[in-house]
User: Which sequence fits this backbone?
């Protein structure tokens, strides 16, 4: 019988061929993504309640006017019977979860947080009732899409902008349909103006005119609620017929 020590030291084709190693890894990763694609093709069961995701800055302090605005926004949506979904962190995410909890003393709806593993945000904010945690931004963003019936984007930084652009793009290519996408605040009008100037009005348009109309761009949170009341009523009618 061969010596076990010598047997373990025998080189294999994979150990000595970097190209073979790369091919094995590449095929394995592509296979995993195929599994993920198949799983996410399964739509979640009908939800008991309409769910609104609220994106916004993690840096906004609780004593700011905008923090109070988002608390009021989430509170009014909660009184409509909506679950509130956020990134689960501080700032405006916490404001939305707090507004939901304060407006729901009998725990009739859910205040949900979908976190990502970051050094500066290790724990969900204290108003999250149902928490999820992802290792990557990519899987986290996909979770928002699977979980939500509408999206509200409050002022924020690069992360908030990434979330907004992803939802916009999915609506553009019809991966999402009949899903309200509302940008709240004057900062987003600058993004809309930039997109129209540089993507639509040039010699060779890079988007369709209809793409500019996908986001509802409003200055007041009350306007966002008015839009969602209509969508929520339509959702309830469809649910009743199902």
Assistant:
């Amino acid at each position: 019988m061969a010596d076990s020590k010598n047997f373990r030291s025998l080189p294999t084709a994979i150990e000595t061929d970097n190209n073979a190693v790369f091919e094995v890894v590449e095929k394995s990763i592509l296979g995993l993504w195929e599994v993920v694609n198949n799983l996410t093709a399964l739509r979640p069961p009908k939800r008991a309640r309409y769910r609104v995701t609220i994106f916004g800055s993690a840096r906004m302090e609780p004593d700011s006017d905008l923090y109070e605005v988002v608390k009021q926004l989430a509170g009014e949506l909660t009184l409509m019977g909506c679950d509130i979904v956020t990134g689960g962190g501080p700032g405006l995410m916490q404001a939305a979860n707090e507004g939901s909890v304060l407006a729901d003393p009998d725990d009739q709806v859910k205040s949900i947080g979908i976190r990502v593993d970051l050094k500066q945000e290790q724990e969900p904010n204290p108003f999250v009732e149902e928490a999820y945690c992802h290792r990557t931004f990519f899987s986290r963003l996909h979770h928002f899409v699977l979980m939500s019936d509408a999206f509200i984007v409050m002022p924020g930084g690069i992360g908030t902008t990434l979330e907004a652009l992803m939802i916009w793009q999915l609506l553009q290519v019809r991966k999402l349909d009949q899903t309200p996408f509302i940008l709240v605040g004057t900062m987003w009008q600058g993004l809309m103006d930039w997109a129209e100037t540089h993507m639509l009005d040039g010699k060779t348009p890079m988007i369709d005119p209809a793409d500019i109309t996908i986001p509802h761009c409003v200055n007041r949170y009350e306007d966002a609620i008015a839009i969602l009341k209509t969508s929520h009523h339509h959702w309830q009618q469809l649910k009743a017929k199902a």
Observations:
- The chain has a mean pLDDT of 88.
- The beta strands are 51-55, 83-86, 111-116, 130-134, 150-153, 181-184, 216-218.
- The first helix runs from residue 4 to 9.
